[in-house]
Amino acid sequence: MLFRSALGRAGLAAGRPAEAIEALLRAVRLMPWLGEAHRSLAHALRSVGEIEGAIVAYRHHLCLEPASLDGLGEFGGTLHDGFGAGPSLPYLRRAVTVSPLSSRSWANLALALHDMAAAGPSIRAGRRAIALDPSTVDGMNALANLVQQQGDAGDAVRRYRWAVAIDPARPTVQSNMLLAMA
User: Fold this and answer.
1) How far is it, in rounded angstroms, from Cα 37 to Cα 67?
2) How many Cα atoms sit within 13 Å of 58 on the Cβ side?
3) CA distance 158 to 160
4) Rounded-to-integer distance, Cα 137 and Cα 78, Å
5) For position 9, what pLDDT does the model report?
6) What's the rounded Cα separation, in Å, for the pair 88 and 151?
7) Which of 39, 117, 118, 156 has the lowest tally of Cβ within 10 angstroms?
């Protein structure tokens, strides 16, 4: 039975989401107590755009593992992508509470707060993410966006350049930097 869950994760990793979903659906039917199988299923469903199914699977996962940092972050991200920042905030805040030393959790919270136009809290969350891990590109991008919106284009460009140096392949950071320089 654990084999089915592992098979599903392997199928997803190999770029075969339909096979992964089939194996993971069997795994959660056979082992409904296995939270990781529900989380993997949610991830697979999200990868093919099945947001509603992913939400159900993430909720099952979080009922079984309420302090799952990955589950909280992924569920918050799914809600954010599907329905906006508002519904994601309770889960992203809980992720920060569960693991206050996770720069990724702080960066996710900063991005959601940024999308809700909560400048002060977003800047604080972005700074916390960066303090915990200076290579947090998402946190730096969110912070640069807010600094730019508050009228400090020079500081924003400096932050964007830093983020591009960390991850040169991130097109959103590059385009944000070019806009700030214009």
Assistant:
1) 16
2) 24
3) 6
4) 20
5) 57
6) 28
7) 117
